[in-house]
Amino acid sequence: MLDGLSDIKNRIVSSSAEEVVASYLERIEKSNINAFTCIAEDAIEQAKKVDSLDIEGPLAGVPIAIKDNISTKGLSTTCSSAILEGYVPPYDAHVIERLRKAGAVIIGKSNMDEFGMGTSTETSTYGPTLNPWDTERVAGGSSGGSAAAVAAGQVPVSLGSDTGGSVRCPAAFCGAVGLKPTYGAVSRYGLVSYANSLEQIGPLANRVEDVAALMDVIGTYDNRDSTCVKHNAGYTDTLQDGVDGLKIGVPDEYFGEGIDDNVQKLVWDAIGKFEDMGAEYTKVSMPNTPYALAAYYIIAMSEASSNLARFDGTRYGNRSEGENWHMMASKTRQEKFGAEVKRRILLGTYALSAGYHDKYYLKALKVRTLVKQDFERAFEDVDVLMAPTMPTPAFKIGEKMDDPLSLYLSDVNTVPINLAGVPSISVPCGFSEGLPVGLQVIGNYFDEATILKAAHSFEKNTDHHTKLAAEVV
Amino acid sequence: MITKEQVEHIGWLARVNIDEEDASEFASELSTVLDYFGQLDEVDTSDVKPTYHVADIMNVFREDEPRGSLEQDAILANAEEVQDGYIKTPKII
């Protein structure tokens, strides 16, 4: 079993933050799963500061990996894209300010799909991150580096971002725990925006309690993000409460065509386990689920086409040559953006263009309302929803790269959650042919406490999280 | 079905230069995805309001007080070409 936060804190007390951070850096050095885009040169300095100044805080001396689309002052932030190669942000994201204040050591930036666009971390300009359980397979995406680093024991905790499942997908594929918080629970200030009405920063770890501890640090109000909501956090407060009497809804539509038989069986076994622990389940129907995927991609791509307009080689990043500004920008974007990013910018521009706006964009926003209403109706009767996180275990590297639509279809069970903005956690629930499978526990708005409590109870009563990936060195 | 010419035009609108070979490939890929998007036509949304945003937040205000911003040097540090405190670009007009 990999060390959790409490083990690390004990090690720091008995040795030093410097020694603990050095041991993690050594693990990263030895590994070849390509989980990082860069390592912080001052990681040891940060740790020494914790030791010498006696810095206190809930994460004092704890090394953490940060997805490379979260701004870190003085440390390269590229979104795994050639267009931002060499960019060093002059400021920290809200979550980074909070982590530094809590004493965490930012050890490096983790690999991701370019600008968060993908389900496998294969669209990274730095090459794919390999799955620690089987290096011929993808780690999932787009926070693949953040999940793989955690599962391979290269860091105890990490941050990712989840626009349509990008924290939960790699958590499921790598056998880690990953939380997509309620929209508005975590400030997006300093997150490089891809689809701003859908995305949230979320924590990954090997233990549910560690994910909750990170939320206590990062999930605070910030007036620099106007979509950030004031709410009562307390993510760890009720973690130890049991699930006796918990009402679980199981949506039929999340077990439909394309969901692997083994995955379905493991998720049903997990629901059976919850029954043994005193919870009860009913089947619920969420009839608009089949339309969520198309609506999601239209909205995400439309927002992306607008958000990515700022990358033109003018103010930051690197530029291509052109005789006038228009040529320079168009050439820069042609040469420095990868194929998937261009695909989404083109589709988004098309969906927003005159004549197609109502057919695609407005229609998708209306379908979004229907999907949201499905959740609101379901939560009138149940406390949580449970379903598979991903339709299959991790697929082989290269398997889906030539067919964008088949890759989009893997997000079928995660995107409805982002459309509605509710919180959702993926927790390991077993193995299919040696590869981890994730159980998704979905909660009502700002009710992270209930899904964390449920996931924690499950973890305490099972041993999936104790198994080690082949890559753990 | 989206044509090669349409792809080139969208590329111009989006400031992404698309050469001929890429335009053909994108035309076929984007058509497949747009076909898939077409399934939304089945959904009756005649009485449904759009959801632009999930959180019911309206008019987020803060006090109108002056506050600091990033230093000019910090901003210019990431620009490829700088002259006299300005970012230099090829001619725009």
Automatic annotation (TrEMBL), chain A:
Any one Gene Ontology BP term: translation
UniProt superkingdom: Archaea
Enzyme class at the top of the EC tree: ligase
GO CC terms, sorted: glutamyl-tRNA(Gln) amidotransferase complex
InterPro entries: Amidase, Amidase_CS, Amidase_dom, AS_sf, GatA
Catalytic activity, as annotated: L-glutamyl-tRNA(Gln) + L-glutamine + ATP + H2O = L-glutaminyl-tRNA(Gln) + L-glutamate + ADP + phosphate + H(+)
EC number: 6.3.5.7
Keyword ATP-binding tagged: yes
Keyword Flavoprotein included in the entry's annotation: no
Occurrences of domain Amidase (ranges): 19-452
PANTHER family: GLUTAMYL-TRNA(GLN) AMIDOTRANSFERASE SUBUNIT A, MITOCHONDRIAL (PTHR11895:SF7), TRANSAMIDASE (PTHR11895)
Subunit structure, interactors included: Heterotrimer of A, B and C subunits.
Stated family: Belongs to the amidase family. GatA subfamily.
NCBIfam families named in the record: gatA (TIGR00132)
Task of the protein: Allows the formation of correctly charged Gln-tRNA(Gln) through the transamidation of misacylated Glu-tRNA(Gln) in organisms which lack glutaminyl-tRNA synthetase. The reaction takes place in the presence of glutamine and ATP through an activated gamma-phospho-Glu-tRNA(Gln).
Name assigned to this protein: Glutamyl-tRNA(Gln) amidotransferase subunit A
Source species of the chain: Methanohalophilus halophilus
Source lineage: Archaea, Methanobacteriati, Methanobacteriota, Stenosarchaea group, Methanomicrobia
From TrEMBL, chain B:
EC number: 6.3.5.-
Enzyme class: ligase
Gene Ontology biological process terms in this record: glutaminyl-tRNAGln biosynthesis via transamidation; regulation of translational fidelity; translation
Entry GO MF terms: ATP binding; glutaminyl-tRNA synthase (glutamine-hydrolyzing) activity; transferase activity
Annotated keywords: ATP-binding, Ligase, Nucleotide-binding, Protein biosynthesis, Transferase
Catalyzed reactions per annotation: L-aspartyl-tRNA(Asn) + L-glutamine + ATP + H2O = L-asparaginyl-tRNA(Asn) + L-glutamate + ADP + phosphate + 2 H(+); L-glutamyl-tRNA(Gln) + L-glutamine + ATP + H2O = L-glutaminyl-tRNA(Gln) + L-glutamate + ADP + phosphate + H(+)
Function description: Allows the formation of correctly charged Asn-tRNA(Asn) or Gln-tRNA(Gln) through the transamidation of misacylated Asp-tRNA(Asn) or Glu-tRNA(Gln) in organisms which lack either or both of asparaginyl-tRNA or glutaminyl-tRNA synthetases. The reaction takes place in the presence of glutamine and ATP through an activated phospho-Asp-tRNA(Asn) or phospho-Glu-tRNA(Gln).
Family of this protein: Belongs to the GatC family.
Subunit structure: Heterotrimer of A, B and C subunits.
Name of the protein this chain belongs to: Aspartyl/glutamyl-tRNA(Asn/Gln) amidotransferase subunit C
Organism: Methanohalophilus halophilus
